[in-house]
Amino acid sequence: MPAAALCLLCGVVIPAAVLCAEPLPRVAFPSGDPRRTLTHFSQANVSHYDIFLLHESEEELYVGARDRVLALTVGTPGSIRAKASITWGPTAEKTFECAFKKKSQETECFNFIRVLAALNKTHLYVCGTYAFSPACTYIHLENFTLMSSGRGQPFLDGKGQCPFDPQHTYTALLVDGELYAGTMNNFQGNEPIISRSLGSRTLLKTDTFLRWLSADTAFVASFSVPEDDKVYFFFEETADEFDFFERLLVPRVARVCKSDVGGDKVLQKKWTTFLKAQLVCSQPGQFPFNVIHHAFALPHRDRGADIYAVFTSQWQAGRTGSAAVCVYRLEALEEVFKGKYKELNKESSRWTVYGGPDMNPRPGSCYMGPSSDKALTFMKDHFLMDGKVSPTQGRPLLVKTNVTYTRIAVHETRGVSGTTYRVMFLATAEGFLHKAVELPRGPHIVESVQLFSTPEPVKNLLLSRGKGILYVGYSSGILQVPVANCSVHRSCAECVLARDPYCAWHSLEGSCQHVHAAADM
Ligand SMILES: *[C@@H]1O[C@H](CO)[C@@H](O)[C@H](O)[C@H]1NC(C)=O
Ligand SMILES: *[C@@H]1O[C@H](CO)[C@@H](O)[C@H](O)[C@H]1NC(C)=O
Ligand SMILES: *[C@@H]1O[C@H](CO)[C@@H](O)[C@H](O)[C@H]1NC(C)=O
Ligand SMILES: *[C@@H]1O[C@H](CO)[C@@H](O)[C@H](O)[C@H]1NC(C)=O
Ligand SMILES: *[C@@H]1O[C@H](CO)[C@@H](O)[C@H](O)[C@H]1NC(C)=O
């Protein structure tokens, strides 16, 4: 391996091992490069293509934008066609109220779509900020129209499911007809909430008074493993369990149980299973990567899932800072949730480890039976775990300087030799897409694609596995990016050295081809 040999050499000559550890993209495509053509879609007067929902057939893509929901036909790679569109903007009255509350009529008093979920075969569920007055409704898929589109008919109240402010972070997940959401629950934006709504069971939420979440909580992702009783939320918040001279942010994972129905006398209409724990992503001698931007759960047959998360550090913001990818096994999360609880010592105002007797069933576990008042009372102040979740191998999988990763998607693919590879697609705050493959010796950045001609953050990144395509959402449109263009590699050596698991050299035809195409020969 020439790269490894070089690394060893420079380790001897230059003490800063950082130079060696940092993977560089093998190929970089500038914006508009004909070797990496991107299919673009946008509609006149429509902006903020923030939310994607891919139909399971991968033939249709639903998009939530500003005052608009679109249905796009995407079955043929290289083509995106508008099939239908719904205009759903706030009423003049709502816009006036929004402006009256000192919000901008130019940038804020619109309906930014934030939730778009496939409720069943015939209906989508959709929520938007609706000029700082969140609203939700249903969409008929048959004719792509809003359900309550009749004049004067009120939409459903979206409070607790959708943020008020388009700047606020959010995450939502539909499981078995119920919506699990993490968002801000008020206009001021200082009351975060994790809620469960829709469906026929009791509405559940986090307790604000007990401060289960810090006022600045920023949600980045949520997921659940099918056939498992748990839903996980990933977020960022100010930690108050440390004595620290400045505001300290920590990345967290929280867990609730699907079987939770809330308490009877204690914790009525509140989660009785809410637990949270700290995520760790750090390497020796460096500032910890403590700001989480996004997380992606890659399902795993035996261990449930591996969670890939992207971070930066609070102490090195901007371009000169670095970004990290850390991977957590679901088992590692579960181990921490099975461990010791923390509790706040009322006299000293310090967080200590709970040393009292164990209870059976364990409070906060996904136990289906009724919980005693004693167990529920315990849960009111024992929601923070003492243990921290460490990444696999105890360190980041990838560290890259001078970049902020805002989104991640991971694809498991089979190379030409039958080996399974994991490919990470990382979108940056400046509008680049890095494709990195995990190799035994460490990650290798196969390519970097500049998505836009002027720098701006990628808002959404969605992988269409079946079609081998990525969808990128940003302020003024949608891009369709094929996972690879193997024909840019002209020779056998180039094709092999690219170490792109999607590509293989076809010796008969003398060309570098997509693995599926090559395998079909
Ligand atoms: C792939 O690369 C080849 C060779 O550079 C180029 O002719 C072709 O247009 C590219 N295809 C795409 C989809 O970018
Ligand atoms: C876009 O907005 C402008 C100004 O409001 C309007 O004149 C134009 O007709 C709109 N275009 C479309 C396609 O809706
Ligand atoms: C889908 O959900 C909608 C809204 O709750 C409901 O009206 C409709 O009957 C459901 N359709 C099916 C096929 O279950
Ligand atoms: C759309 O289809 C639904 C369900 O079939 C129907 O109730 C509704 O009236 C239709 N809306 C329009 C505008 O045709
Ligand atoms: C950081 O990236 C910018 C472009 O995004 C580039 O101009 C600059 O030279 C880079 N700095 C370093 C130290 O790599």
UniProtKB/TrEMBL annotation:
Organismal lineage: Eukaryota, Metazoa, Chordata, Craniata, Vertebrata
UniProt cross-references to InterPro entries, sorted A to Z: Plexin_repeat, PSI, Semap_dom, Semap_dom_sf, Semaphorin, WD40/YVTN_repeat-like_dom_sf
Residues annotated as transmembrane: none
Gene3D superfamilies reported in the protein's UniProt record: ligand-binding face of the semaphorins, domain 2, YVTN repeat-like/Quinoprotein amine dehydrogenase
Protein name as annotated: Semaphorin-4A
SUPFAM superfamilies attached to this UniProt entry: Plexin repeat (SSF103575), Sema domain (SSF101912)
Span of the signal peptide: 1-20
PANTHER family recorded: SEMAPHORIN (PTHR11036), SEMAPHORIN-4A (PTHR11036:SF15)
Record GO cellular component, one term: membrane
